[in-house]
Amino acid sequence: MNGIYAWVDWFQDLTKKVADGTPEQLAKRAKQVKLIDQGSKPHRLLQYGDDNIDPFSFVYTISAKRGNESQSRIVHSISEEFDLQAEFPVELDDAFYFPRGDPRNTFFHKDGAGNPELLWRLFRHAVLGVEEVRGEDFDHALKIGNVAIKKLTQTLFLINPKEFLPCDDANRPYMGADLPNNLSWNDYRHGMTKLREAFPECEPCEINLFTYSTHSKELKPSSEVFQVSTDIFFDDTDHWEEFKSNSWVCAPGLAYNVPFGEDLHDKVPYQLEKPERGDIVLVRGGGEGKGIGVVWRNDYKSSLKMDSKVHVVWLNKSRASLGGKSAGSHHFSRAPGIKEVFRQLPAYQPTFALLGINGGDDIKAAPTASQPLNQILYGPPGTGKTWQTVNLALQIVCGRSEDDHGRLKAFQDLKFNQEDLSGNIAMVTFHQNFAYEDFVEGIRPVLDREQEGLRYTLHKGLFQQIAHAARERPEENFVLIIDEINRGNIARIFGELITLIEDSRRIGNPEETEVTLPYSKESFGVPNNLYLIGTMNTADRSIQLLDTALRRRFKFVEMMPDPYHQDMAEIEGLKCGQMLSSMNERIAVLLDREHQIGHTYLLGVKDMAELSDRFRTQIFPLLQEYFFDDWSKIKKVLGKSPFVVDKEIRDGLVEDNSTDDEQRIYGRLADDSPEWKSPDAYRKIYDTNTNTAG
Question: Would strands 570-571 and 555-558 be described as parallel, antiparallel, or unpaired?
Fold first, then answer.
């Protein structure tokens, strides 16, 4: 093997030489290998006598070496001592994706007490393959002091990377929920079978690279999907075997149309330099799906040359007939629609399941069928409604959501373009002046400078355009996000189309309905693959006041403040979540529950300076808006905190007896007051010992 698996042949060459030799020969060679810098005391491997230089301890010690200088020294020394023919490119970082032993504990014995005879037998059988190993040898090896399942299976993987897999933190989540803690040989084999089923036709070293790199967060599968043909020279020759064996894909045939090095974007729709690490690549050719990989490195990003490659980690190397379905018209392109064609094939379903349950926190499974066609997220301001719409949109379009870094990138990449109808996610904000002519279609005046007058053109609105794109690409999902949906006049904006968004009236359903648009006279219907997600700020309007037609056709999802959100900080003993909860309890009593303060106002606050800024510029003004400068209620919401101050009525300002004794004038604490940055001042909002409303 080569490239990112260059280490595999080297280790196999080494372990075969060790297995063919004797314990005495290994001990002699181990003493000659430069395990440590010249002049240092002998390596710990040599300190327990020749009998304890067993092959497992030797291999695991090699894996524990870190750093290019140390790795280079020991690799060259071993290659010379054992006369190895395979090369190990130590300068290539990609070559080092194998389990690293703990340098403090590389022995397969306890202070010299072990079972060398057993370990030699197990080692020689492992070199030959899984089927040659005796189950009782594996089970007995686990009883040796200093040996555990992780250490034993990681070393078996290094001994034979084409037959074994480590059972460790990276791989164990894929080996089945029923895997016991104390594994036997049969349990281990069952776990390896489950793991290999998740990566059809892939070798253990390929599987391990994916699981290790995703576990360490060095590889994060994204929502971006590309497709490539194996007919790389446009001559009906299939190059899948090259792709498969070399762990890369390429498209050198593009040089026949556009010289490499020129700007491809203005010439052809190929985007060879676009795939980033983690993007998905679907490979097709000759009416077949060939496989699925995830990008590891893209040579085209630095140089558009004939010999450049997109290096991939294979997730699935099964071949499956596409059944005559469209699989893309270009030899390399983005592929949101082709993804759906692959997803429907049984051969590739394990991979799409894998990309949804890969053991990390960053990617979550979210089948689009679980989302309603029309939904509105409603709640007080600051509860994360708009943030959640992005997550939902990505789940619907891509089948999963992303972490914060990948979420915005994926959202931007999938943004709907009204010029060429590319992309899958659009967003619009309703307001009082928004109308049918903006949303669906209308006539707009255009200044004609040549004729020195006005002419009128037909304007197609966002809703009409994205619905048209959804009908043109039925294999893809589309999302239209309507922010502040309750602020628009629904009857005026949707007009007669409000009926068409009902589930039963969508195109493809038994009661599908189409209407003739008033301006263009075109037939219009809403397809089943267009999802509508609205947001509604309940501080602006109660759900009871919504247009009846809207309430009947949308499902409503309430989003309330979450004072126990995982990103709610505790600063210098001040519990921000408890403070928010106390304020909201009082707001609900003094006003109503729809005007509470959302948790996003306090997320990510790191210190008192940031909390002071959020409170002075966002939260306090929001309270002033809620209570229309009724300062006595604002003071009650803030408990015994000093942020609302009583102002004295100056003598002579009002006539005698014109005010009662209870009347007060309130004001806001001066912005330069140190109280704004005092944890004790905020703690008084929720401290039950002093928290009686004044």
Answer: unpaired
